[in-house]
């Protein structure tokens, strides 16, 4: 009997969409290779992903609710980072920690062969270890980030300023809940991973940094690929896609800064004037904090902006089908904050990146993108501010001018290489997980729990 057919795996991501989405894509890839998956999260998160599972997926992916304690500041709809007021983040981490006994009970009931966990919950591998279940850390960020955080010397080929590294380390040290900093949580999670660490990256992008991270952690870092959800045809009739259909090939930029970063009024004005100056067609996805009662995008933009750009631009409030836009032949650039998920999507669909990083790991991700030639970073002024003319210049360079052809060619080549290597990457992941479980004596003739 194929040993994989007897493997049951519990996946436990952190409660953020940027973590849940790659965990779900990993679940799908493993389920198609004879793994039975228990996908564990809060009810509010599970309700948002039910629609992303096909009937076939549901045969081998089971959604398992983990219940957080009822805290006065944290009603059930806040048991996710989506829409969570920033001041409640420590409360959410504390509540997740308090769910650890419930998670241990889930493991006792399901009796899995393996758990795959995330970077903020060191109690998960501890619970697994107490039941002799191997546990593997899956990082949904890049290998360069891990290398930079673990190594004090500068990373070759990545011109990251010390100040940027210190900012990231300070953020990890300052973010805490239950008197445990994020830095301490991450260190424990790295230490407790059984022999290997899975990472959302691929060798063409971060090969030497994958090897470097393996040396620094003394565990084999195994890339799992970009883990980008497939596009569907459900948005074909969306007005925005029909609008794109009328544009020339590679003529339009998508402008989006992720779901959890909001432009300041000054940044919004510079971005608007830059798009106007660039003369390039664009789709701009504008998001606002829930506390800002913005009735329409028009009131947030410079006066007369929408009428001046006319049919050349589309401004959309809150959400647009990003993957479908990036996959459209009319899209020739992505003005992005360089969150790792956005980088993965842009590279998968072969779209050059105009990098405007904002905070956290984004400045480093932008350096990675630029260092391999698949994007260009917009330089800020000496005070760290964005300049409309500089943004416009880089957009035109990437989308319109001859100098941008090398970037476009490079990103297309990388996209094609990613596609060819996808099966090989997941085959290596499967082999590593099987060997790990065989070595730990954890694979048996268990069948999925009804």
From TrEMBL:
The keyword Glycosyltransferase applies. Residues 6-228 form the Glycosyltransferase N-terminal domain. One of its GO terms (biological process) is carbohydrate derivative biosynthetic process. Gene3D superfamilies: Glycogen Phosphorylase B (3.40.50.2000). Its EC number is 2.4.1.-. Residues 412-439 form a coiled coil. InterPro entries: Glyco_transf_N, UDP_glucos_trans, UDP_glycos_trans_CS. Keywords: Coiled coil, Glycosyltransferase, Transferase. GO terms for molecular function: UDP-glycosyltransferase activity. Belongs to the UDP-glycosyltransferase family. This is Glycosyltransferase. It comes from Vitis vinifera. The gene is UGT94E5_6.
């Amino acid at each position: 009997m194929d040993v994989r057919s007897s493997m049951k795996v519990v996946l436990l991501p952190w409660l953020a969409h940027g973590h849940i989405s790659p965990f779900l894509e990993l679940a799908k890839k493993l389920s198609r290779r004879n793994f039975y998956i228990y996908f564990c999260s809060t009810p509010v998160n599970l309700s948002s992903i039910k629609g992303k599972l096909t009937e076939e997926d549901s045969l081998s992916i089971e959604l398992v609710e983990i219940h957080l304690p009822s805290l006065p500041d944290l009603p059930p709809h806040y048991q996710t980072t989506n829409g969570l007021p920033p001041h409640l983040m420590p409360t959410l981490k504390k509540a997740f920690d308090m769910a650890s006994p419930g998670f241990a009970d889930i493991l006792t009931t399901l009796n899995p062969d393996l758990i795959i966990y995330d970077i903020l919950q060191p109690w998960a591998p501890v619970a697994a270890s107490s039941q002799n279940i191997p546990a593997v850390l899956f990082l949904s960020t890049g290998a360069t980030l891990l290398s930079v955080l673990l190594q004090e010397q500068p990373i070759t080929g990545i011109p990251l300023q010390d100040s940027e590294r210190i900012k990231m380390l300070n953020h990890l040290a300052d973010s805490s809940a239950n008197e445990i900093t994020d830095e301490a949580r991450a260190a424990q999670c790295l230490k407790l991973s059984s022999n290997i660490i899975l990472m959302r990256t691929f060798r063409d992008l971060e090969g030497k940094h994958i090897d470097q991270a393996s040396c620094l952690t003394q565990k084999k870092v195994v890339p799992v690929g970009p883990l980008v959800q497939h596009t569907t045809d459900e948005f074909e009739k969306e007005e925005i896609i029909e609008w794109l259909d009328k544009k020339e090939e590679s003529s339009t930029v998508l402008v989006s800064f992720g779901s959890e970063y909001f432009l300041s009024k000054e940044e919004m004005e510079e971005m608007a004037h830059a798009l106007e100056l660039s003369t390039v067609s664009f789709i701009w996805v504008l998001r606002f904090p829930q506390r800002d009662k913005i009735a329409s995008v028009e009131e947030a933009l410079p006066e007369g902006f929408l009428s001046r750009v006319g049919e050349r631009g589309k401004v959309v409030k809150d959400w647009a089908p990003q993957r479908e836009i990036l996959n459209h032949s009319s899209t020739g650039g992505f003005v992005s904050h360089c969150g790792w998920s956005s980088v993965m999507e842009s590279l998968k669909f072969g779209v050059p990146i105009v990098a405007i990083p904002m905070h956290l790991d984004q400045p480093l991700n932008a350096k990675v993108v630029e260092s391999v030639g698949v994007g260009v970073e917009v330089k800020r002024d000496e005070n760290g501010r964005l300049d409309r003319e500089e943004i416009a210049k880089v957009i035109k360079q990437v989308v319109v001018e001859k100098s941008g052809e090398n970037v476009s060619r490079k990103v297309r080549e990388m996209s094609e290489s990613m596609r060819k290597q996808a099966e090989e990457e997941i085959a290596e992941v499967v082999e590593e997980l099987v060997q790990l479980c065989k070595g730990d004596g954890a694979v048996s003739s268990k069948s999925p729990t009804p």
